[in-house]
Structure prediction request, 258 residues.
Amino acid sequence: MANQMDSPMIEARGLTRYFGAFVAIKDVSFSVPRGQVVAFLGPNGAGKSTTMKILTGYLSASEGTARICGMDVASQRLQLAAKLGYLPENGPLYDDMTPVELLRFFGEARGLDKTTLKARIDEVTGLAALEAVLEKPIGKLSRGYRQRVGLAQAMLHDPEVLIMDEPTAGLDPNQIRDFRDNIGRLGESKTIMISTHILQEAEAVADRVLMISGGKMVFDGTPAELKQSGSLEEAFYRLTDYGDAISASTPQDQGGEV
Prediction:
């Protein structure tokens, strides 16, 4: 039991991904223990989304391995689905459905019984503050509310690990504050990884910061360690390279987005 508790909940070993001749990420390695909230930082195009998609099984690695809750992402994806909640940036939603219809649909698809599903819908709609729009078509919701629907869907099955890509995109300051409060509560029982390029987000919610630039890991430590020699902005500028970020933002023509 002790070994299970001590094993990493998120683990990347030598992750590399090519889009044609373009190297999106190269030899990315880290591990995240149970109960830690990690901010995954980097400039736009640095490889954050590519790494997230590999960790969640939406994209295969060209080299290296990824494990969630001890399970190999490439070979055990179906078993992993019960343990992992994923919120992609601007994730697809069914515009003709209402939030409550969407949550029922995904809950039934995951095999939740009616009693459990009702309880989980009540729980996640409260966490995501969706009560006011539960019966409104998703296609008519603001970007902020759509993001909240995505968050509720990611949490619906009460996963042990939550991976979120730019989760505060489109939220107003009040919604961002509520999101941070929710992450603080969820972090008491779950392992959470949040991809962002907003430095204040990392400082506000994270126990630990991982930073990537030009597809390579350049920092692993606490928010306090990141800003030891100056502000977060100064540390970000020092550790990232603008030229790498520009070159890394071009693989969309190669069939992918980093």
